[in-house]
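Q: What would this chain look like folded?
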Amino acid sequence: MFNSLKEKLAQFTKKIAEVADKKSEAEVAAVKPTLVEKTKALFKGEIILDEKDLTPVFDDLETSLLESDVALPVIEEIVKSIKMQLVGKKIKRNENLPTYVQGVLKNAIQQVLISAKPEEILNRIKKRDPARPFVIMFVGINGTGKTVTIAKFAKFLQDHGIKSVMAASDTFRAGAIEQLEKHGKNLGIRVIKHEPGADPAAVAFDAIEHAKARKLDVVLIDTAGRMQTDVNLMEEMKKIHRVTKPDLVIFVGDSLTGHDMIMQSKEFNDATEIDGVILTKMDSDARGGSALSISYVIKKPILFLGIGQKYEDLIAFNQKWMANRLLGEANVAG
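A: My prediction, written as structure tokens:
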């Protein structure tokens, strides 16, 4: 997971250490050194990293992050944060510099990530108006694993004692209805469906009425996977939103698609405001840039990560977890 970006961040740490090693004791100083500062640093056993020495390293880092599908605004924020923590700072010579830089990187990465605890969603569901089920609408393009993600989310709710019904509002593909029905059967969850080609908003409306009648807690709406450039399908999605007035809109994105996913999320957020993101195929994501970028770009939290095909393969996201893995600290608890 994230092998490409992990290697590039490790190279950055190594280069910073090399810069520090090359500085002679006579050059120990701040960005604009004075003899007094040099002398103080020398006797205290400190080294001060200046911007002039670090500029080539930062340039390499920016290139590496671009190659790993990290969005430009995110790169700028990460580099800005690292500079604030490194340039002109006094570092003790006996301190483990790579470890220090790792900490700086980890802090910079965590600052561009936004997460939300699953407990927040559960609490919102439990505090809803009992006269109406909590409605969650899932959006995204074809091929992201949206339908199986809905099933995983239903399992997550089921494990917390929350009863749900699934709405097969992807009437554009007959196969999508069958797929959702299969998941519903496996989980023992009812799927409300109409014939292929039916009005998707009507299916979602019926699912809400079904939940009201059966006193179910949540309605999970599957929508047709659509390219953000497909005007008709995007308008259809907006209609579903108007009819159902969802309490939560979740964008399901394929982490392997890189910059394309970031653009998709922006378009969907403009069309029907997204409340959170679930990233799929994270177990296969070697670059990691899209996962690092999406929440910063659209200013919405990453809720869960899909890490496999089983219903249990949906894990809550948090910043520490992500930073640990990007820096090769997979065994560190998040």
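The longest strand covers residues 248-254.
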